[in-house]
């Protein structure tokens, strides 16, 4: 046990570095993913056919192929056709596009779930379409998006581990390196799993707090 | 840099052959996920805390940690304790275990949707608990969740490329091996993407038909 | 906005509404065909008929919530320019359509108050953001209107904290806040508890004394229709069966189907 403890202590600084990177990737990617999700989700409901079709193509392309394949494609192929991006940019962009595609389904579902009568009341009050969207549709749809977006955030934390395969020193990358150099394979991988769990759990708690504040129950002022 | 059609044509048969491994991994993983997920779902419903607590903890833990690390864990750690498993089997176990935590949730939803009266009716007939599950609850709980399970089949299919990291020569692994010999990444990776897209679209269509059939029956 | 020649002042019996040759079907089922109806300004028209006869569809067409397959709708002499709409989330009417339709207000059977806004916010939303009224003024007027229907104290409640009757009174006030010249009521008491019906009818009775507002009232409350309406249009399966002054309709209905309906309703 003595040696296990010293191993853990010896590994800790590098693992903490890796964990910080993983958290940074997650927090950097999430807003972009949410933005892409919102744009694509709205675009799919557009009256302008080309916009709606473009959104469908984007969503199906990223949902229909594998994240790792997308990552390698962006990493290996884009430079060949003259697009030079840093591994970080490549990684964050691919993750954001991928999760944006999945998230757009959440956005679309939530928008379509707003009761028709709410939209009709807004139209009967002669509100312009943009205002209907901003003032009636989104405020009612956003709270419903929070729980599924929370799940997506956990999926995102897990997915960031793939960035270790395009040379980014995230938690997984550091862990693999440590497993090789120290030979303490079991300890390292268990620690790795535990740290990921810790990150995911913390984010789950944060999302729950957010839901309590802005979730369906609160914003709709359910009586009592 | 141009996309070279003759190189792509040369690669296609190799990649299509590799896609058989991808399919094997997917079906194997799904089989594990279907069985293990049901077991986990049933364990979580146990009245005894010594049973449902660890089952729940396992589900939460596996679900919240990356599949990639779980693959590494099974591939690198288990052999240290004398568990020797072929590479592809390692991948199948990892996929199956990971997705069992998702299918367990699906099963749970299906089971909870069966009206309580069905249990009471079973007990009123003094059927043994096993028969209630086997002949009353599960036959009602499972059909409605087939589409949700199908979605995880597609999701798992798209995660099989992760097995390339432990040297399974499925689609991506094979494409990378070819690419490393010719130093051309464009064609292999594009083809892999297209093959995935094709498979996804076809399975989505098939699933939709299954869904319609199931909806028609009930 | 294209300026149309203003001739309204010199042609007294101006129609507030004119529906001509309206056709409407839903997924192959024809609900209205060749439906025509003129409503003079200031009239209180009761539109009655059995369930499924197309009353709601007529109101929704006027309010712009449905698009006619055929025919024209004129509002104060101006034809509404419809555009094919894709049936997505929000219809893509031409922008001038909103301007033209602005005199119309509608009150729904199920109130349709905005659930995430308070009663007051429900009322002030359109005056501020559609009419461009200063917020303070809009709030003052909204509170006065809410007060006139006995709801000033509940202005800060959310819809789910209000009873059905209270919600419907807020919904009426919300429509009034835009100073409509045509008001459409679609069975506004039909989903209320019986004891709440009177409070909503009382509000409408007061409204009906304002001669400048044209009202089309779809209702099953025959007593109320008889009391406030000048004219009754009785529909069956999308067709106008009888169109008569209210007194005549209720005292001596001409069509046997009207008689049967009145017998059932009373
Ligand atoms: N959006 C719709 N889709 C399909 N059918 C509809 C739709 N709206 C109305 N209908 C049909 O049109 C007919 C007339 O409906 P409605 O105008 O609501 O009648 P009323 O208000 O007189 O009860 C009914 O048969 C109804 O089922
Ligand atoms: Mg109706």
From TrEMBL, chain A:
ABC transmembrane type-1 domain residues: 19-207
UniProt-listed PROSITE patterns: ABC_TM1
Keywords, ordered alphabetically: Amino-acid transport, Cell membrane, Membrane, Transmembrane, Transmembrane helix, Transport
Entries under InterPro entries matching the protein: AA_ABC_transptr_permease_3TM (IPR010065), ArtM/GltK/GlnP/TcyL/YhdX-like (IPR043429), Ectoine_EhuC (IPR014342), MetI-like (IPR000515), MetI-like_sf (IPR035906)
Transmembrane stretches, start-end: 28-45, 52-78, 188-210
Membrane topology: Multi-pass membrane protein
CDD domains in UniProt: TM_PBP2 (cd06261)
Pfam families listed in its UniProt record: BPD_transp_1
SUPFAM superfamilies in UniProt: MetI-like
Gene Ontology MF annotations: transmembrane transporter activity
Subcellular location: Cell inner membrane; Cell membrane
GO cellular component: ATP-binding cassette (ABC) transporter complex
GO BP: amino acid transport
Family: Belongs to the binding-protein-dependent transport system permease family. HisMQ subfamily.
Protein name in UniProt: Ectoine/hydroxyectoine ABC transporter permease subunit EhuC
Organism: Ancylobacter defluvii
From TrEMBL, chain B:
PROSITE patterns documented for this protein: ABC_TM1
Domain ABC transmembrane type-1: 19-207
Transmembrane domains' residue ranges: 20-43, 189-207
Organism: Ancylobacter defluvii
GO biological process per UniProt: amino acid transport
Cellular component terms (Gene Ontology): ATP-binding cassette (ABC) transporter complex
Family label: Belongs to the binding-protein-dependent transport system permease family. HisMQ subfamily.
Annotated localization: Cell inner membrane; Cell membrane
Pfam families: BPD_transp_1
Record GO terms (molecular function): transmembrane transporter activity
Bilayer disposition of the protein: Multi-pass membrane protein
Main location (coarse class): membrane
Record carries keyword ATP-binding: no
Protein name: Ectoine/hydroxyectoine ABC transporter permease subunit EhuD
Keyword hit for Transport: yes
Keyword field: Amino-acid transport, Cell membrane, Membrane, Transmembrane, Transmembrane helix, Transport
TrEMBL record, chain C:
Domain ABC transporter: 17-262
A GO molecular function held by the record: ATP hydrolysis activity
PROSITE patterns, alphabetized: ABC_TRANSPORTER_1, ABC_TRANSPORTER_2
Protein name in the entry: Ectoine/hydroxyectoine ABC transporter ATP-binding protein EhuA
InterPro entries with a match to the protein in the record: AAA+_ATPase, ABC_ATPase_HisP-typ, ABC_transporter-like_ATP-bd, ABC_transporter-like_CS, MetN_ABC_transporter-like, P-loop_NTPase
Residues forming coiled coils: none
UniProt family annotation: Belongs to the ABC transporter superfamily.
Listed Pfam families: ABC_tran
